[in-house]
Fold:
Amino acid sequence: MRKNTLSSALLIGSACGLIHSTHAQQGLGSGEDLPRHEITHLTGDLYRFRQIRDFGMFAVTPDGIIVVDPMNSEMATWLKTQLDERFGLPVKYVIYSHHHNDHASGGEIFADTATFVGHENMRKNMQAPAADAPLNRRQRLWDANGDGLIQPEEAAGTPHQGVFASLDTNADGGLSHAEMWMRRSGGEQVPPDIYYADKASITLGGKTVELHYMGRNHTDDTTLLVFPDERTIHAVDFLTPKRPPAYDVYGGFFPDWLESLRRVEKLDFDIISPGHELPGTRADAIEQRRYMEELVAAVTAGIAAGLTKQELIDTVLMEDYDHMIEFHEHRADNVGGVYETLIADR
Ligand SMILES: [Zn+2]
Structure:
């Protein structure tokens, strides 16, 4: 097991599933009135478990249980107790959707019985950068004074605004690449025992789950789970029904992400079980793909026309999607995140 200096407790909930305003109109409720922990039956042998607005899932078979994303130690401890009481079966597999610490933590709770599985790119993504590693290309866009660190004023308008102090672990007033890496990737995670590349399947107790690598999207190590018996997919962070990506566009890959969403539509499924928010349908996958296509096309055209990041934020309004959950919280970040990704990658 890997050890890092910063406690994973500091990091949980900081990355993909930020809790903002109320969502009673979407049936989500606010963060305050949502269950902290809950198990819901999805369909067939599939169940979802939650910590507020973050979700993992599991499949129950006669020979044991397959868990997707144990999430964190608190969640996994609660889940193990529930699984023991309800089913009396061991967790035989833990599958990771991707390496981010708000999904891939907590595996130690099941380490005595489970085999851990993830995409091969998790191997590099779970390696902490050296303390003096240089800023990456995106981060260099923020580094106005060119000193190799991101000061609070440089973090304004970035995903690290508002959490600066918690990330600046050496309290030198500037964020290094390694300190920013900790936010989403640090902590203590049980690494996969088995890595796969393009496609894999696991069969346990007559139940088969397929692991599909859909290319680069929210990360370059994302696995899409397919449960053929239930015509269900489990998609995390790159496809969230009825909601734009939150800060998930930062660190994402464009235009690769679009191709990933197009590939989802070619699969045979009825139900989307997402890593955040509530389940959806094929129509939600189509809507997400259209949103992302229009977003990337508008930002690409704006860059070609010489517009700045702020000018794009002011003009790429995406009004056709203002019914989506937290649209008004995320639109500007989505525009800015795609802009910075395309600029940094040129
Ligand atoms: Zn993520």
